[in-house]
TrEMBL record:
Organism: Marinomonas rhodophyticola
Family matches, as PANTHER family: CHEMOTAXIS TWO-COMPONENT RESPONSE REGULATOR, STRESS RESPONSE REGULATOR PROTEIN 1
Lineage, highest ranks first: Bacteria, Pseudomonadati, Pseudomonadota, Gammaproteobacteria, Oceanospirillales
One Pfam family recorded for the sequence: Response_reg
Sites bearing 4-aspartylphosphate, chain numbering: 53
Keywords, sorted A to Z: Phosphoprotein
Segments crossing the lipid bilayer: none
Positions of the Response regulatory domain: 4-120
Protein name in UniProt: Response regulator
Keyword Phosphoprotein among UniProt keywords: yes
């Protein structure tokens, strides 16, 4: 059975690349354009990993994660932030919310998949 990954990023091209890399490795992918959309997709289904950007319209990644953590089903779901942000303060905020990995764009698919396999 394949594992399901929720990908939240406002960039269609990033979602496309991430989706392609994950699907080629056998993952099922659910896409969302922002935190608000991603939150709506957390409807009780089993999600093995959440990948989120930090900067998104309507609801940013850290706010999305904060809200996702309030949902019992997703309290312990591993999270990987995939972002252009390298700010230590943001990373610390993310870590406090239980974010397991922080990957900076642009990413190399092998590095990305290695991080994914460690988290799922």
């Amino acid at each position: 059975m394949s594992k399901t990954v929720l990908v939240a990023d406002d960039s269609a091209s990033v979602r496309q690349i991430v989706s392609m890399v994950l699907k080629s490795s056998g993952y099922t992918v659910i896409e969302a354009e922002n935190g608000k959309q991603a939150l709506a997709k957390l409807d009780g289904q089993k999600i093995h990993l959440i990948i989120s950007d930090v900067n998104m319209p309507e609801m940013d990644g850290l706010t999305f994660i904060e809200n996702a953590r309030k949902i019992e089903t997703y309290k312990f779901t591993p999270i990987l932030m995939l972002t252009t942000e390298t700010d230590q303060e943001l990373k610390d905020r993310g870590k406090a919310q239980g974010i397991k990995a922080w990957l900076v764009k642009p990413f190399q698919p092998p590095v990305f998949l290695s991080a994914i396999s460690k988290l799922t």
